[in-house]
Design goal:
Number of helices: 13
Largest sheet: 9 strands, mixed
Number of strands: 15
Distance between the termini: 63 Å
CATH architecture of the largest domain: 2-Layer Sandwich
Radius of gyration: 22 Å
Number of domains: 2
Helix content: 25-40%
CATH superfamily of the largest domain: Glutamine synthetase/guanido kinase, catalytic domain
Length: 461
């Protein structure tokens, strides 16, 4: 087993030679090797740096295959073909991708890199989120196209530590801002020390920060990063999300990326998506409606057509669907429009920067799966030669005739399992694997007694 090439041609933020020099000089003593699990979280191991260079770099490391077969609380659950008590909960190989090697400025003496997952016989772990995205990008490459993406993660920041939040049952926490600070420079200045630290330390980790701004919910903010090729974008997303939580914890604060942490505005993860040809030019730009090319029109048509079937990959949790409320800036109508935030697909950008913003995912999304769904939708539109419906103008929330995305996780699960498009794009194994994840989530939710039920029923029923 050998470490993969530098991310398929990507220049790493930290070269292998520079890592060796830093380790020899005592500057770096720890190397983190991480995989992304089904929930979009980083899992993995911390290695003594000399051991990593001597042993792990050339051979990889093993991890229990249950990491892709547990619920959000790391409970082993039934229903997964690849990992179970009957199969003995064996190992898969974590193969370092040197193209993701970087420093971790918020952890002293630390570097990190991401892993691709393979079985010990060398076969790919096809249910791995990173492998799922790679496969879709290979399908797209068959059409001579490359996908680029940027994710915009919103979060709510609290002045309570994660430990305090846990002890309080995540109730009566103190948001970092006590009023709506959307675009407010005064309000965001109060938490700028933390926002600045996240931006600068992510830059030190090889990401390209662009901006930070306040949002509508109390204590809600967004830090935006430069777009990249689709795989790099997903890699940056999970590194930033995990790192932002670690930095907040070091400051005695806490961040939540829940899609809907309270009754106010939810946390979105708008995904900006575009395609380029082999010469690096936009495949979306042309002389058709809204300056779309024929390829661009088919891509948007494919996205609209497949959102109902692939919505499980964009909204993976029960809580994800709480965002979809009329007038909430979270979409309910599957329409497209130029710079229209009431539509699920918002066409933005000028010239070569033209792109489509998918407004459905929340900040709880697994970026590999969501971007894979967008690529699969684009390929479907191209291969099926789909025609694009007319652009929508006005308030799409009020369009009673518009198709709707799945309204609940149960609806999304039904569409996913019955979808020929999903099976054609992802294969039976992936469809079954993520259907089981949804069933596990639903079973846990159905068995829970909520605060809402207690408040309504304890005395008065």
């Amino acid at each position: 087993m050998t470490a993969s090439a530098a991310g398929g041609g990507r220049a790493p933020a930290l070269s292998l030679e520079a890592l060796r020099v830093a380790v020899d000089g005592g500057e770096i003593d720890t190397v983190v090797l991480a995989l992304t699990d089904m929930q979009g979280r980083l899992q993995g191991k911390r290695f003594h740096a000399p051991y990593f260079l001597a042993e792990v770099l050339g051979h990889g490391s093993e991890g229990c295959d249950y990491l892709l077969a547990v619920d959000v609380e790391m409970n082993t659950v039934d229903g997964y073909a690849m990992s179970s008590w009957e199969r003995g909960y064996g190992d898969f190989a974590m193969v370092p991708d040197l193209g993701t090697l970087r420093r971790v400025p918020w952890q002293p003496g630390t570097a990190m890199l991401l892993a691709d997952l393979r079985w010990l016989d060398g076969g790919d772990v096809v249910a791995s989120p990173r492998q799922i995205l790679r496969r879709q990008l290979d399908r797209l490459a068959g059409h001579g196209l490359t996908a680029y993406a940027g994710t915009e993660l919103e979060f709510v920041l609290y002045r309570d530590s994660y430990e305090d939040a846990w002890r309080r049952g995540y109730r009566e926490l103190t948001p970092a801002n006590l009023y709506n600070v959307d675009y407010s420079l005064l309000g965001t200045a109060r938490v700028e020390p933390l926002l600045r630290r996240i931006r600068t330390e992510m830059a030190g980790a090889g990401l390209v920060p662009e901006s930070a701004k306040g949002e509508c919910n109390l204590g809600q903010h967004e830090i935006a990063f430069r777009y990249a090729d689709a795989l790099t974008c997903a890699d940056n997303h999970v590194i930033y999300k995990n790192g932002a939580k670690e930095i907040a914890a070091q400051e005695g604060m806490s961040i939540t990326f829940m899609a809907k942490p309270n009754e106010r505005e939810g946390n979105s993860c708008h995904i900006h998506f575009s395609l380029r040809t082999a010469n690096g030019r936009s495949a979306m730009l042309g002389n058709g409606p809204a300056r779309l090319s024929s390829v661009g029109q088919r891509v948007l048509a494919g996205l609209l057509a497949t959102i109902p079937d692939l919505g499980l990959l964009m909204a993976p949790n029960v809580n994800s669907y709480k965002r979809y409320q009329p007038g909430s800036f979270a979409p309910t109508a599957l329409r497209w429009g130029t710079d229209n935030r009431t539509c699920a697909l918002r066409l933005v950008g000028q010239g070569q920067g033209m792109r489509v913003e998918n407004r459905l995912p929340g900040a709880d999304v697994n970026p590999y799966l969501a971007i894979a769904a967008l690529v699969a939708g684009a390929v479907h539109g191209i291969e099926a030669g789909l025609d694009l419906e007319p652009e929508f103008a006005g308030n799409a929330y009020a369009d009673g005739s518009a198709p709707r995305a799945p309204a609940t996780l149960r609806d999304a699960l039904d569409r996913w399992t019955a979808s020929p498009v999903a099976r054609d794009a992802f294969g039976d194994e992936v469809v079954a694997h993520y259907a089981n994840q949804a069933r596990v989530e639903l079973a846990a939710f159905d068995a829970a007694v909520t605060d809402w039920e207690l408040r309504r029923g304890f005395e008065r029923l």
